[in-house]
Amino acid sequence: MGFLILASVFQLGSLMSFTTRSTEEIFSFFIALALIIKAIMAIVHVYSHGYVGCITGVAGELCDPAEPLLFIFLLFGTTWLSMTIISFRSSPYLSRWKRDLVSDYALPIAVLVFAFISFFGFSDVRKEQFKIFPRDTDAFFVAFYELPAEAQLPALGLSIPLAILFFMDQLLVTNTVDNKDNKLKKGSAHHWDLFVVGILNIFLSLFGLPWMHGALPSAYLHLKALSDVEDRLHNGYIQTVIVYVRETRLATLLAHLIMIPVYFFLVPYITVFIPTSIFNGTKTAYVFPELLYFLPGVFLFMAFSSLTGNEFWERILLIFTEQRAYPPTHYIRRVPQRTVHQFTIIEFVQLVILVAISFAQYHYVEMVFPIVIAAFIPFRYFILPLFIPIQYLEAIDGKH
């Protein structure tokens, strides 16, 4: 994390001014796709252990076909209800502020509804509740000073790609959210944010807690929750635009303050209503955190929500859209259709590379992930113009 602090002190975040929309869109689309893949992996785990792995006629402790069926019902039910409630904003019912309030809380409402259905409607189906495991040690701090001398240099080397990952993630998220399209008025603080992330994660590392930084799509969903939007008619098409954003720290501050009593006093009671699945052939149960019944549904909701307004996703849809039904997007009027599709295919290849590296079987391949994202920036300026003329690139992929 010291590398992040040095990067903020020397204002290396200014290098991210060279990023264009395509880099941000590819990264955002990758996050959405990764969430979808995690949900699919959860389904595969459930069915491979609770359904496919069952031996016909043998009733074992881990053989319960009803459990994967309930898993699918809760997963897609949570996603469907969340998407339905979030669209309540454009309905004619209730007053505007009430519609906005219900829409902003679409996800927690859906989770609570299906948690209630699961707890009371399917009480006879075997479900393992989420378990809170005690610490393996009573040590308050991580004993980093006990690391052998021969391991310190490799640890320093491994910290470099980690620092690049945090650097790219934090600033790409900042550029995605903090741009003129979102009508933000307060000035940005890219370098200060990077400094705070570095300091924060040093303390989290000392206590053995998870690291934190800005992330998609939660950052963008938070922006939308604080925004007033309008549906405007433009060239015969209805477009949802942000007209005002409540730029306040109170929402985030209050949310995290509420987490403190919830974490220390209410978690043991809340987890009773949150079922998980235990899938292991041994007698010792092992909880797969990714197999939370509702978490895959949350993944799908966040993935689908983050695709809204992503021009990369919109250009993928254009490949399968009749030409006369194309929206009146500015670059469509200035760039040949073949060039638009060519640019989209190149973006798709970049996305496939990210997915292949991120979900590689070998962990040392995953370490290349931040370097590949950083390499997309010079690729855009030096390689891509060899295939697509500059004037078309500026129209499709200019800066915000």
TrEMBL record:
It is found in: Membrane. Residues 3-51, 63-399 form the Bicarbonate transporter-like transmembrane domain. GO terms for cellular component: basolateral plasma membrane. It comes from the Eukaryota. GO terms for biological process: monoatomic anion transport; monoatomic ion homeostasis. Keywords: Membrane, Transmembrane, Transmembrane helix. The lineage of its organism: Eukaryota, Metazoa, Ecdysozoa, Nematoda, Chromadorea. It is a multi-pass membrane protein. This is PTS EIIA type-2 domain-containing protein. It comes from Caenorhabditis japonica. The chain crosses the membrane at residues 27-47, 68-86, 106-125, 153-172, 192-212, 253-279, 291-309, 343-362, 368-390. The keyword Ligase does not apply. GO terms for molecular function: solute:inorganic anion antiporter activity. InterPro entries: HCO3_transpt-like_TM_dom, HCO3_transpt_euk.
